[in-house]
From TrEMBL:
It comes from Ideonella azotifigens. This is Nucleotidyltransferase family protein. The keyword Transcription regulation does not apply. Keywords: Magnesium. Coiled coil: none annotated. Residues 2-161 form the MobA-like NTP transferase domain. SUPFAM superfamilies: Nucleotide-diphospho-sugar transferases (SSF53448).
Amino acid sequence: MVVLGAGRGSRYLGPRHKLAEPLGSHSILSHTVRNAIATGLPVVVVTTPAFADEAAGLVAKRDVVVLGHGTGPAPGGMGDSIAAGVAARSGAAGWLMLPADMPMVQPLTLLAVAGALSHHAVAYAQLRGQRGHPVGFGAELFSELMRLSGEEGARRLVARYPAHPVDVEDPGVLQDMDTEADLASLRARWHQRSNLAAG
């Protein structure tokens, strides 16, 4: 699994980078990585120097791929991040792409999409007909994933190959965090879920 956390987060105008924003007792990045780790699948975190230490506190240092220089943005865009994550686990049977700003995606959802890759080249989580994350790619797409660059990401591959929807009852697959309003919504849902768990 590749946690994609090297983006600029330029749409978010809060006081800090969006991945550093707290959600309960941990940061957005930390929650997303912890959910990935909870699956038991190998996890690679692609990030910038600003988050390298935090990521290395959650996974082995060898599983942290750092892009960019200083505290600046990663070179290129999502495509470069995906290619870097795939390169770090080139011998894998497939790869799940999980944006680091999606801390509510549940481990069982991640496992369900990963399981679909044994029969499909591309699979993605779907909630009531709406396409969400993660998106998974089988090993046969290694060469094409490695050629990705820039901001396009993997949309071209998802469009080119039959993509299998994995139906889940997990609203987290649709909830990313690009704006301050997104963060407020995320925190509201987080507190609601925490209260239900405590009750």
